[in-house]
Amino acid sequence: MKTSLGPLLYCWDKGKVTDFYQHVAQSDIELVYLGEAVCSRRRELKNSDYLELARMLKGSGKQVVLSTLALIEAAGELSELKKQVNNGEFMIEANDMAAVGYAREAGVPFVCGPHINLYNAASIQKLADWGMQRFVMPIELSKSWLAKVLEQLGGNPNRPEVEVFGHGHLPLAHSARCFTARHKGLAKDGCQTICRDYSKGLLVQTQESQPLLRLNGIQTQSAACVNLAGEWAHMEAMGVDWFRISPASGTLPTLERTQEMGTDECNGYWFAEAGFNRTQPEP
Amino acid sequence: MELLCPAGNLASLKVALNAGADAIYLGLKDDTNARSFAGLNFTPERLKEARALTRAAGKKLFLTLNTFPKPGEEQRWYAAIDLAADIGADALIVADISLLDYAHSRYPALPLHLSVQASATNLAALSLYKDAFNVERVVLPRVLSMKQVRDLAKASPVDLEVFAFGSLCIMAEGRCHLSSYVTGQSPNTGGSCSPAQHVRWQEQGSDRLTRLNEVLIDKSGANEQMGYPVVCKGRFIADDSDSPEYLLESPTSLNTLSLLPELARAGIVSLKIEGRQRSPAYVEQVTRVWRAAIDTYLRNPDGYQVQTEWDRVLGKLSEGQITTLGAYERRWQ
């Protein structure tokens, strides 16, 4: 199993994004997903900027995949998406079935991100027939669920690669509503890209001070950071191909495969429990 | 324009037909649909009765199969498709790709409706489902503005159905993990959002605390109207503030009576009433109001006005007695 870096889900200014990927270029991460997956109103970086970063990373020996939006509503977003799918240089990560549709139409290979609902082997096989090379397991599924899926796919020599969202704040939901703008009293159409002010989303706690969510524009994330590093050996044994890290700060996390989990970390989904649970698996 | 009403049992189905539903949607008594609650839904025998009743009334029956099959247990979902074909359901409402594929390849004459849980919000997604599985109709997620619905309807290769009234999901449906994050139960796999066994109400002094798997979702005065505790309608505290707020949405229901003419002009073929988990009395009242509204509109499209009485009835049946146009209205977003 190797490490991949998921798309940056927050809105950072261009300088910070560029610095971050320069840092990534020097790291031992082999696969990098790049691009805006949350909101089309974020325009700190244009497609051409992402392509430039992609080429830089490729030059450093990385595999690069261009990530696309998770929620596509407007015609303008669709035409942008079509351009991304047909960029002719890099594979794309589909996060909406629109991207799957365009890739299928164009006959180009693609990756399915965590927002495409692939819950069973027959669906995965269908998408593989359409050109899917790899998929990220939906975030709410467990080790035992994935094991069964992999068992079903087992004998298939063309089985797509499997990636697991292993580290970072979980993207739990997407809405038409921008929660960050609304919290700041701004209309979505006049949002001033206010999510830029929250480089790791806006933490939301219950009235008993229990951290619960992070508001990230139209996306709602988990307050806790999922950390499955302790499960590395299991994942590898199961046949998982990639362990995804989701960027959370300007630096990359060090994955401690033996250490106990922090109080702000969770792993419940992997053990078929509530996602926010923190379970210490039996050794 | 079809009025599509929910039925959690035969009693609801009968009152809905009586009150003017054109079509009924329902689910089986297991986890093959996203309203898998105790005491709700239909056994195969009851489903056959439902089929007979709707047929006798000259109305349609749709079977909802909108969860995602568990690996190794797919047979339960396939059997439900076989059953729908066997009883002659007028359509299957499906979200999962493997189920669309199964139904399309085995029963090409059985109309497929793409469930809202498939989260298809744009022309490219609609076209894909049409092309790959000959989907006849798509149920649109509650994330589109009225303008976006109109634009989509103009170009759509499939019929479109929208939610007209009921509980308001504010997230792109089928891709919301708030319930499973807090309870471990997901609409996609287990068939319900924030299931009742995780809900606990607790009195504390003059406050009432609402908990979901022990997580405090809201705290309110004992006399305050409270909604069902779902994460997206809780009161929480943002890091840059001291006071609890409805940071995602307040307890409210979707009510699009005022949009009916626009939806009709856009060419929407079906108006869906949410609420298979609701009582027959609820289903009857809501159906009656919507029947009256649609008939009023059809008799005189230009003279259509929402009657105060309709709003009053629906308001009383709404969460927190508050209604909204949700994402249809750009300002809401």
UniProtKB/TrEMBL annotation, chain A:
[4Fe-4S] cluster binds at C39, C178, C191, C195. Its cofactor is [4Fe-4S] cluster. The keyword Iron applies. Keywords: 4Fe-4S, Iron, Iron-sulfur, Metal-binding, Ubiquinone biosynthesis. Pathway: Cofactor biosynthesis; ubiquinone biosynthesis. It holds the Pfam family Peptidase_U32. InterPro entries: Peptidase_U32, RNA/ubiquinone_mod_enzymes, UbiV. The keyword Manganese does not apply. Forms a heterodimer with UbiU. Belongs to the peptidase U32 family. UbiV subfamily. PANTHER family: PEPTIDASE U32 FAMILY, UBIQUINONE BIOSYNTHESIS PROTEIN UBIV. Required for O(2)-independent ubiquinone (coenzyme Q) biosynthesis. Together with UbiU, is essential for the C6-hydroxylation reaction in the oxygen-independent ubiquinone biosynthesis pathway. This is Ubiquinone biosynthesis protein UbiV.
From TrEMBL, chain B:
[4Fe-4S] cluster binds at C169, C176, C193, C232. Keywords: 4Fe-4S, Iron, Iron-sulfur, Metal-binding, Ubiquinone biosynthesis. Its cofactor is [4Fe-4S] cluster. Pfam families: Peptidase_U32 (PF01136). Pathway: Cofactor biosynthesis; ubiquinone biosynthesis. Forms a heterodimer with UbiV. Belongs to the peptidase U32 family. UbiU subfamily. Required for O(2)-independent ubiquinone (coenzyme Q) biosynthesis. Together with UbiV, is essential for the C6-hydroxylation reaction in the oxygen-independent ubiquinone biosynthesis pathway. This is Ubiquinone biosynthesis protein UbiU. It comes from Shewanella jiangmenensis.
